[in-house]
DNA sequence: TCCGATCGTTGGTGACACTAACGTTAGCGC
DNA sequence: GCGCTAACGTTAGTGTCACCAACGATCGGA
C-alpha cells in the first residue's frame, strides 16, 4: 500500500544479511498485519490465542514467556481479547498472585480465522520460492533464531 | 540483554515462516541497534550515509526512495546527521524545491565506523551457519524481498 | 497560463519491544 | 513463625521504525 516506487537499492545495504532480514520482515509484517486487520486483530492477539490453544490455560507470565511478549504488553492484549470474549481471566485459587487465562469457544473460532488468513499470507510471502526452498529458508532461520534465543554464552 | 528465559515456543508459531522472519529480525535489530548505539547512531543514519556514499549527493526525496525511508523520516534523520556535521544540506540552484545533501569527510569516517560495527554484527547474527549456508540464506531472502519490492501485480 | 506533480517540512499514528516502579502474594532459609 | 526474596499483574512511559495527511513553494507540461 506504499513503497513509492523504490529506486535502485545501494549494494552496501542489499548485501547485508541483517538488512535483508529486517526488510523482509517489514514486508512480512505488512502482509500479516493486513491479513489480521481484516479480522480486527494484530500479531499479539494471534500469538496469545495460539499459545493458549496449544498449551492450555496459563498464567499471564507463562503466556508472556511462551509467546515472547513482554508481560506488560500481555496485559493490554489480554484486555482487548477479554473484551471481545475470546479469553477469560480468573484468579488462580492456588496462587492468589496469578490469573488463569483460558481461551473460549469464540476465541478458538477467532483463532481458526486468523490461522486461515496467515496460511494465505505465507503463500503470498514465499511465492517466489519452491517448496524445497521454502523448507531451506525455514530451516536456516530456525537455526539462527535458536542460536539467539538461548545464547550459548 | 533481555529475553527473560523463554519457555518452549508453540509449534503453531515456530513453524510459521512469517513468524520466523519477524522474530529473527527482532534479534537482528537488537544486535544492529546495540552495535550502532555504541557510536551513537541508529539504522536510519547508517542507511542514509551508506546511500549517500554509494550514489553521491542527492535530493532528500531521492535519498528516501533509495534507502527505503519515508521522506518525512528522512528530514528528521538528516537534521540529526547535519547537527553532527556528517552531512550538509544546500539548496539546488537548478531546482529551488530541492535540497542537495552531501556527505562530509567526518560523515565518511562515521560511516566506516558504522560499517565496522555492522560487519561484526553479521558474524554474530549468522554464527550458527556455515559460509555456504549464509550464502543460501542471503540468496533466498533476496529473492523473497525482490518479489515484494516490485509487486508483479 | 493553468494544473498537476514534486519537494521539503510539520505533526501526527500505530505496532512492537522494552524499562521502571508499584503493591500483592508465595515460599524458602533460618 | 518471621523475614527476605522472588514472582505476579498492572500502570505508565520510551525508542525505533514505518506510515499518513496536510501545507506552501516550485516546476513543468498541456
TrEMBL record, chains A, B:
UniProt xrefs under InterPro entries: HTH_MarR-typ, MarR/SlyA-like, WH-like_DNA-bd_sf, WH_DNA-bd_sf
GO molecular function annotation: DNA binding
Keywords: DNA-binding
Residues in HTH marR-type domain copies: 1-146
One Pfam family in the UniProt entry: MarR
UniProt superkingdom: Bacteria
Coiled-coil zones: none
UniProt-listed PANTHER family: HTH-TYPE TRANSCRIPTIONAL REPRESSOR YETL, TRANSCRIPTIONAL REGULATOR, MARR FAMILY
Name of protein: DNA-binding transcriptional regulator, MarR family
Source organism: Micromonospora tulbaghiae
Amino acid at each position: 500500500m506504499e513503497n513509492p516506487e523504490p529506486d535502485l537499492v545501494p549494494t552496501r545495504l542489499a548485501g547485508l544479511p541483517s538488512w535483508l532480514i529486517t526488510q523482509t520482515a517489514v514486508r512480512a509484517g505488512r502482509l500479516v498485519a493486513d491479513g489480521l486487520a481484516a479480522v480486527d486483530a494484530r500479531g499479539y492477539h494471534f500469538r496469545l490465542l495460539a499459545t493458549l490453544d496449544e498449551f492450555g490455560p496459563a498464567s499471564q507470565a507463562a503466556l508472556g514467556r511462551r509467546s515472547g511478549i513482554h508481560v506488560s504488553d500481555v496485559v493490554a492484549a489480554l484486555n482487548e481479547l477479554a473484551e471481545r470474549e475470546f479469553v477469560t481471566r480468573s484468579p488462580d485459587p492456588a496462587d492468589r498472585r496469578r490469573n488463569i487465562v483460558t481461551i473460549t469457544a469464540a476465541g478458538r473460532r477467532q483463532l481458526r480465522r486468523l490461522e486461515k488468513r496467515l496460511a494465505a499470507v505465507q503463500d503470498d510471502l514465499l511465492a517466489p520460492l519452491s517448496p524445497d526452498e521454502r523448507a531451506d529458508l525455514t530451516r536456516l532461520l530456525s537455526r539462527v533464531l535458536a542460536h539467539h534465543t538461548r545464547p550459548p554464552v
